[in-house]
Write a structure and sequence with these properties.
4 copies of one chain form a homotetramer. With 421 residues, chain A is α/β, with parallel strands linked by helices. Chain A has 2 domains: 155 residues, Aspartate Aminotransferase, domain 1 (Alpha-Beta Complex); 257 residues, Aspartate Aminotransferase, domain 2 (3-Layer(aba) Sandwich). Helix content of chain A is 38%, strand content 17%. Chain A is built from 14 helices and 18 strands. In chain A, the strands form 4 sheets. Chain A has a 7-stranded mixed beta sheet. In chain A, a hairpin with a 2-residue loop joins β1 and β2. In chain A, α12 runs parallel beside α14 and α13 packs across α14. The longest helix of chain A has 26 residues. Chains A and B meet through α1, α2, β1, α4 and β4 of A and α1, α2, β1, α4 and β4 of B. β4 of chain A pairs parallel with β1 of chain B, so a sheet runs across the interface. Chains A, B, C, D: Keywords: Aminotransferase, Pyridoxal phosphate, Transferase. Chains A, B, C, D: This is Diaminobutyrate--2-oxoglutarate transaminase.
């Protein structure tokens, strides 16, 4: 495998290619193949971008059909048949059955574009500048989004420009068992000199992906919604990583029965890994004036097409969601066992997550790296997350066959055992 | 054409669909077709994203070939064969023949992602926070990029969060004939109490697209490079709209013989309208640590593939660039004649631009809208730019057949005449 | 009493003259006299600026002696005999006996000038932009200081400019009994994605004056010092209100045995109510270059003179501090009784504070205003503090005769009883 | 003269004591005396704070009379007889004769306090965050004011926190003879993508003191007022250094016949060098809510008293202003001659200023320092200003006797000659 050109020409900023120093060529569902022909089980899935697996045949066929004729590929924010088809499908398959009434903004195809648009919309709608965000939250790295992202790695690489407009509060569980962190938020809201500028909105991940697979309690999320309503604050759920079925429902907030004012989606939204994102907003919040937020790639018709195909294929009924939940339980059970074994070695470890967004917290990045490094040797692509990379994270395709899932779990278990014994 | 769903579900922020209230379906090279079967000549080309036309057959074939097998589509920042092929092609076809030595960062697939990365890199490399930008500059709308973008429309829609870290100076020509605006910049740099924080970098478009097709003088650009060198300031050329051949050379700065420290590309880079962007940097500026800037879609293999195909097909020799220059002269000549006719009607008007990035300044957005509105009725998609939308702007595909080009120019001339007579 | 001119000409921003709508003329120690000849006991003492009472004879005599000759009044930052005398006295009377080694900056004569200088010094010394501050902290209202001040009243009156560079954390007790709020700080410091930018310094009041007479625990303060040391963070004690003997020692932090890296003093520092402030810093932190921070009134020789006289007269031995502690116990005891009586009326109330910085928290600003309003009718000037003005606050002169102190306490008790009965 | 304690204990930030390394003790009108008994003519006058000279007998007598009884010294923002007397006097002596109708805010006693209040008031009144300021402007160093101050020395010492909310434009003359810099301002205001956020206000010094004694043209100032009116922007004149008679009229803007919306005064306002400042505002702009801006020393009764005495003594008729103008002409003539002599030595030099705010620009700080250093040896205290300290600056007391004025000018001339010959 020739990597010299890649190593020479690509910026030092590259990172995954250091953990997985091979050249990938092919990929199908939960399998990756490198240039030497070696296969890997994929428990990373594009960091949650490939919920329907690599090269899903139905979604891909929709793309090929669209490409077979000279259908428009790039449409700015024109009306296109592809966009209309996506919106109709999204409304019929996702919004209506859930009783949701949202307008849709296509803010440019990346998650951080969506977050920038969402928080700006919240500010414009409420006439306040502050956005509350949570410890270990990750919402993107462009400067607006970065104000709500906790990672020092990014925050310290802005060349000395502090971010403006975000206030961090402790996420569920951050202050330990028995402390409801929302007590602090509620106290600050009622406190005229607590230093918290009354926020326009709160942005929250229901399961923090980059932050370490921290799943907030459903009661906590429900209470957060209530606090927002009581104080005229907008609830923004960033469902970029946890959405599109990852937790066992299309939207991750469905578990808690909350209805956010604003939602961001991206990553798996296109179904095939194409760049795509959207912002959902309650119609009365749509205070945008024409053209006030823009971006060149906000009308990428190929993504509209594959996204509609994904919705058609997987979300017409509940069976897919149920499959995800079933597999999630398998992972939870196996991760629980692995964590128990690790604890027996004298290392604190615990299982966590929701649906197929699962992790094992092993307490340190070094230990986690040993496990995932060994796993890669054994044919499993799996990554870590958390503030110190201390959580071994499973984001396998939701479509993974049981055979591959179990094989991947076996590899992980063996790798943990050989790494830590 | 059914537009109700689109009108109902899409956010008010949509803008092009107001000027062109039809549903587009198909597109080939410089022709767009709406759902009713009506054809339009396309002088907008995805706001400069479709330099090689819609659905260019060679580029599309490369995409179809790639899709024909289960090649990886979404690869985070893995090493992939697709990325390697792109980098090799870019080096061989573009960098080497021009004597350029750049490293490449893929910062996420949109222009604003690239600008955020570029200015942050400049700040980190120089340890200074300020970025000089120019009147009428447009560099994106995420909060970091917005600090360098002049449009009030965006700047006033941040919900009360002022941008931080950009200082505006007058672009070439802004202070009128006979004033070299760089005198002001140079004076400020040497002035310890002029209020200009010594910048890490200067970001500049050699032809301002959104700002009104303002082409800076080549001497001015050369002098700007000299000032930057003399004061240890990085020169960042934002070639997102003016690059990829738009001005008659691959990079717009080649005309002036300058070598920027950092370059941003996007829009037409993928060749087919797929979201894609890159940051080029002199190797010694690559101070990024692994993972300090990220984004989900920075390894979109389909775009690597089409981008490489575009380079192969159009840039192996100079013939394409020469064609662009030839067509640019046609447009310049016709725009000059139209402008002259408009002046005869007592309206100030003038032609401007470089290569196939051309405009007619008619002095007011109302007049420009009348012309482009009439043009759309007559089968030509053409937009305006400038601070008041006062410039009728031609960004036709560089690949436009002469027949379509001349037909489009005829329509524009007739439209101007019927609108203003 | 003629107030029309005052009401007509002075800005709406005036506030104390609304609570006390009389024209004051004379004042001696703890007594104020209005133009109608009515006397009031003063439990406000210039919001803590008149620790030695109004027109203290010894301090005033020093001023008169200085004025008797043409001694320099305003000396920029010249060397003057007055400044030298102050520095010598401060070193001999205050620093040396306490084993403290500080350099002194005169940053301009107001508290907010001192805070701006202190936090900027911390940032410059550590090369980090963030300053941790605490809920209900008050450190001034100029934009730099305001970043560390919690009051919404001020924070929302910046015309839409968010403050930059301050992070709020919960003060001691903020999360309720049994929660050490420093656990949260320590957790955030160790958390690479908690959203807390590693601070240059922590600014803290050991007793929060404007924030509601919240006295932090001495163990808490000691632990805070330890955390700062462990993480190379500077500890800045803002002793503007709590210093100069208010808590029963010259510096409020002496009680806890901590040694801050930086200290701010103002308010009672001049002894007679003249504008004066200083920043104390450990010598190795003095990274200022000449002239990097300035202000016209940083060499106000009258204040140097009165300040030196105050130190001479009150701080040569411990007797004054002991007197303050004795009186503080009287107030504490009486406030405790008043609070108990209020609780008997079914209103939550509690006594709090340290030394002669004492308050009764009555739970609401309305109730507190009723009490202080009635007190003013009865001849006692006393104010409220806290986020809702819910704390009746005693900041009487430290020099108050027992007779006046007891009379003031009697008035307060009667006023509370007649207001709440 | 003992300076060890001063050198050891005072922060490195001290600056004037480096240029004048003596210990000053006494001062009368335009004479300073050091501890060794040496006398100096004072052409610095507290950087413009001592317009009425050191220890003016009439003003001092008012202070002594006030102190003779137990009149209140420190009054927060109480109504006091001292404040009322000041306001009545200010209205009668200054405002009414000039047909001005202003309300008055006492924002704390320093200039930067006043500027912070003024720009915040402008923002609150207009609902916009931006303040336009000018090259070489100096308006204070607290973070809000610093956004409008051009000096890098201060701007680069904020520990990496960029200022927010100020936009710099070229001051009159900055772009050379023949260019009216307001053309640029006006063009930017009308330009929707020029990058200038529509400002709430413009802050301007009519003669820039720290910036190098740059006096704007009166027509330029009048035009600036017109532009502000036309665009609903507030005109803020910072008259902290140029006001109180320095230019030959009480307010420096009287020369141009403009009426600012907001005015800041400080420095010489108290008459005796006591810290004191005020903000004047058109009554309809007084949008402050009670207590929205505060500060401990905003009711310093001694300064009210001396300020009223200064107005009484100097401003009841025009004679004092005429004297200032007469002396200003003497200085202008002599400075012109000195500049001419310097030019004869082959060094570019020119005279500039208005009233008794006068300078000789000698092109470099080194040359200027040589002259002022020699002058100090010869018994004249005189300082430099300008971005490089290249302007030898005369800010002598307005009350200077002709004898001292001429002697000072003689010393300066001799010093220039001996320094440069």
């Amino acid at each position: 495998m020739q990597t010299q050109t890649l190593e020479r020409m690509e910026s030092n900023v590259r990172t995954y290619s250091r953990a997985f120093p091979v050249v990938f060529t092919k990929a199908q569902n939960a399998r990756l193949t490198d240039e030497a022909g070696r296969e890997y089980i994929d428990f990373l899935a594009g960091a949650g971008t490939l919920n329907y697996g690599h090269n899903n045949p139905q979604i891909k066929q929709a793309l090929l059909d669209y490409l077979a004729e000279d259908n428009i590929v790039h449409g700015l924010d024109f009306f296109t048949a592809a966009k209309r088809h996506y919106l109709e499908t999204f409304e019929e398959v996702i919004l209506k059955p859930r009783g949701l009434d949202y307008k849709v903004q296509f803010p440019g195809p990346t998650g951080t574009n969506a977050v920038e648009a969402a928080i700006r919309l919240a500010r414009n709608a409420k006439g306040r500048h502050n956005i509350v965000t949570f410890t270990n939250g990750f919402h993107g790295v462009t400067m607006g989004a970065l104000a709500t992202t906790g990672n020092r790695k990014f925050r310290e690489a802005t060349g000395g420009v502090p971010t403006v407009g975000g206030s961090f509060l402790p996420y569920d569980g951050y202050l330990g068992e028995g402390t409801d962190t929302l007590d602090y938020f509620e106290k600050l809201l009622g406190d005229k000199s607590g230093g918290l500028d009354v926020p326009a909105g709160v942005i929250v991940e229901t399961v923090q992906g980059e932050g370490g697979i921290n799943a907030c309690g459903l009661e906590w999320l429900k209470r957060l919604e209530g606090i927002c309503r009581a104080h005229d604050i907008l609830l923004i759920v960033d469902d970029i990583q946890a959405g599109c079925g990852r937790t066992g429902k299309f939207f991750s907030f469905e578990h808690a029965g909350v209805v956010p004012d604003i939602v961001t989606n991206s990553k798996s939204l296109s179904g095939l890994g194409l760049p795509f994102s959207q912002v959902l907003m309650r119609p009365e919040l749509d205070v945008w004036k024409p053209g006030q937020y823009n971006g060149t790639f906000r009308g990428f018709a190929l993504a509209f097409t594959t996204a509609a195909a994904a919705l058609e294929h997987f979300w017409r009924d509940d069976s897919f969601a149920e499959e995800v939940q079933r597999k999630g339980e398998i992972v939870a059970e196996r991760f629980g066992r692995i964590a128990a074994w690790i604890r027996e070695q004298g290392i604190e470890a615990s299982e966590r997550g929701r649906g197929l967004m699962r992790g094992i917290d092993v307490g340190s990045g070094d230990i986690a790296d040993k496990i995932t490094g060994k796993a890669f040797e054994n044919g499993l692509v799996i990554e870590t997350s958390g503030q110190d990379g201390e959580v071994v994270k499973c984001l396998c395709p939701l479509t993974i066959p049981d055979e591959d899932l179990l094989k991947g779990l076996d590899i992980l278990e063996e790798s943990a055992k050989s790494a830590l014994r």
